[in-house]
Amino acid sequence: MSKLIDVIRIELKLLFRNKIVWIILPIILLYTTYVFYFFNIMEETAEQAIMSSSFVVQGALLGFMVLGYYLIRREKDNQCDELFFSMPYGETYKIIGKSLVSFFLITSFVLMNSIILFIFYSVTNAPKELYIDSILYFIIYWELGFIIAGLIGMIIGVFIKSRSAYITMFIIWLFIGPLNYYMFKILSTLTNIDLRVVQYILNLGQHDIHAPYKPIYGFPLQNFNFTQRLLILFTLLAFFIILYWRKSKKIVITTLVIFFIVFIPTFNNYKLNFEVIKLYVSYSHDEKYDLMYYFEHQDDEIIKSEIKFKIKTCDIDLNVDNEIKMNTKLKVQLEEESDRIVFSLYRNFKINSVKDENGEVLKFNRKCDSVEVVFNEKVDRQQEKIITFNYEGYSSPLFFADKNAVMLPAYFPYIPSNINAPAMACTTSGDFYRNDCSYTADYTLTYKGKHKMYTNLDKVGENKWQGNNVKGVTLVSGSVKEKTSDGITFYYPSVAKNGDKYYKNQIDIYKTAIEKANKDFGERLNTNVKKVFFIPIPGEDPLGFTLWNHDNNFIFQTNSCETNYFDEDNNSELLEVLSLSLRKNDMTEDYFRIKELFFNICSYEYNRGNEELVLENIDCEIDMYKNELESLKSDPELIDKISICEKKIKIYEKIINIFKEDSDKLDNFSANIYKKIKNQDMTFEEFLDLVIKEI
């Protein structure tokens, strides 16, 4: 042991005599300090700080690769090998000592950066969950990655003795760090081959350098990210030992035996995640996966059915691990005689079986998000049947459900629904939205999983919930906090600073907006809110309004943990409430355009107190459409678009005249238009004609 300690001491002394080390190390630490300071203090988004340090990771990978090469080549270049060979087991002590020096330096570097980050966390009062998750992030994306990079450098030092080693390291460096996002993008373009999964596997840093922090889900700390790096480390370590001691058959055989004993079970565990890597990680945990599918399958009809039926009870048995496993028992009542009915269920879930109340297997057909269940005999009108679905798989990247976190809103068909609509849809112009597949029934829920579950149902036992006459079931678990105030229980991301005050303030503001919508627009929205979920659900229309109402439970979109401001003087909350009321399944491109223009007009009516700003905005709109009109006139075949553009200009010019003459003429204008949008179908051009007539 003393000899090994002597070797380590010698290696460290020789290393720190190199002036380059004393130049590079402070520069990197200063840069990371700036990054952590910028996001913690200036941007006030502590949770984003560590995920925005990809340049540090990329640079450090090269630095530790060169370090590994330098440690191996130093004695050879200085012709000091004889010194170690003269010692008993000198060669073994030398290589173990160099490896430990590399490990010590890497760990010290990661530890110093961790301390810097945690100091900023303490200054900004970051929640304790962020400390724990950051430690795991440092281990997966920094420590293991840097150790692998150092090992690669040592292998190159054994193999290559010329200066071409630096070129080799540079090329490898481009493909093993966050920069490989761009390298593989270029390769994919040149070869026309989808290489995203390969890019993910080779990347030792965070997969997507553009990915923001996900509230509720947290950092990308899935087990397979840790396992992937372990597999690479095991492989390189075994290769290095065999390469270095290739003359000793005993060492080679022993290494191979140990390698396969460790590698095979680890790989089998990793292999279980191939599907989730393909579905989630290769699409960056965002809406690309679903957006691409529904855009490409716009003409793929779901299984249509005229047979209406009620779902009276729904008993959910949910098990969440790497994927979700569900056993859902439904009591259905047909409204007319039939031998089959159609459910909606998200397409990625694999249905293992469908059975009736007697345990007999029922045939089923699937298409997109629809499941047609065929009974063994005709079912009479008003007759009740029990149908049990057993299914498993990976949820949508938009609505995650794994051992790290769960976010399954009630409107998403993760349980079979009697709403005959796909989970999501995309118009020809790319408007992407979710359909509401929730339904009112009596629900029970049994849950098994890693994290505490939060739901709109009432808790009746350990991991058991129940709700009667409830519209859907929302499930949330992960990095979540719960707060009750004035009889309202609300759930929000645990990393949100002052979240209890901020989100309570939001609830009050939206309750006021709902009351205004009920008064001014004749709505009957429920203000008796009991539970509210602030979760990172996707946006639902061009203006980004995202609010869902399920009886006395609300779901709000929150994609940021910034909670230091909230503008109470604008009317965006009212518009968001109106957007909720105008939302429907199977929306067309025209309907999106109608909503967008209506909200613009409505915002002008409700911001009459800020006339100067309103007129400035309208002038900008008119200038934009006039420019568009000029470009359209060059092509006579675009007569329809020219007509629409001219009508938009006419509408905005009329609004300007009203503001200049008598803005009170706008009283109730939006309410009148709103009722007609809600109660009748019309094209966008018909809507423009209506507005011109009414204004």
Automatic annotation (TrEMBL):
Superkingdom of origin: Bacteria
Annotated coiled-coil segments of the chain: none
Keywords annotated in UniProt: Membrane, Transmembrane, Transmembrane helix
Residues annotated as transmembrane: 20-39, 51-72, 100-123, 135-159, 166-184, 226-244, 251-270
Protein name: ABC transporter permease
Lineage of producing organism: Bacteria, Bacillati, Bacillota, Clostridia, Eubacteriales
